[in-house]
Amino acid sequence: MKKRLSILDIANSLDISSTTVSFILNGKAKEKRISDKLVEKVEKYVEDVGFRPNSLARSLRTGKSNIIGLMVESISNPFFANIARLIENKAYNNGYKIIYSSTDNDTTRTRELIRMFRERHVDGYIISPPEGIVDDIASLVSAGVPVVLFDRYLPGLDVDSVTIDNFESTYKAVKDLIRSGRRNIGFITVDSLQTQMQDRLAGYEKAIEEHGLAPHVKEVDFNQIPEKVIRHLTAFFRKEKDLDSIVFATNYLGISGLKTIRNIGLNIPGDISVIAFDDHDLFELHNPSITAISQPVDEIADAVINLLLNKLNKGSKPRKEQNVVLPAHLIVRDSSKGAK
User: Fold this and answer.
1) Residue 83: which of 75, 113, 271 has the closest Cα?
2) Using one digit for the tens of pLDDT, what is the confidence trace for 54-78?
3) Rounded CA separation 81/168 (Å)
4) Domain ranges, residue 187
5) Which one of 53, 73, 89 terminates a domain?
6) DSSP-derived secondary structure letter, 232
7) pLDDT tens-digit readout, 148-173
């Protein structure tokens, strides 16, 4: 195996000190008054031999890796994938690289990822946190590590966050169904104590309560395969035969729900109206098209990376944590038009 070149090897080959080579490679040539001629000589040699400095070793020396750790529920989910792409672009333009990881809402896995990122000396964290991770996030914050949470927050923890108004957006969606004449409105959600899911459920319950209607709620475990989710939803629809509309609390539940509705032979919107939280390309392409609560992906990504970059900026003055709450938008399509 070919031996990896070191700074000492370069110094010996060029008959200069390893300290001089290190200063040049770390961009301190002007500060140390190293001649342009010598800088050019070192840079040409480095390019010719294809030398790549050890990034971990450099981060230990400089205290900065220029890497941001991004942990999301699932990078395969279009919402998180789009957020990650936008964050990556802006981070790159500001001199940072992104390392992605999916937590699958698993507490143990998230702790292991945080440990791995700390070992790699990432400069900051962007996290959509699962349950049971408060102490781990608090440890990062108390150590002075920049952290921004998004999609959901952790009550009682002083840390920057970016969320949408999950309560109000769900409340308005249910009110829209009620105005259209619906009275038996179901709500299918994830069995979770995460703030975004609790707020969506609370928005549904508030609208139902205000109009004296009966709630019809089905909670589904997060980590179930779609086939099993469909079996649970099929049983729910067969039990709740009077439902005239349904709200899905996530887009992946919405997709499984559409398959269920097709399988049991219900017509949309004739038999049942449908709204799904978090828009998806499939909802626009579906026949009939599906009404969706659309999250402002661009604004979320901008707010997240701007908060983190401000914290990474050593010149920034210490400040109180910021909790950004953005509005969502109801895109009304064919699946919720017209009364039954």
Assistant:
1) 75
2) 554 554 444 567 899 999 999 989 8
3) 25
4) 166-295+330-336
5) 53
6) H
7) 999 999 998 999 999 999 999 999 99
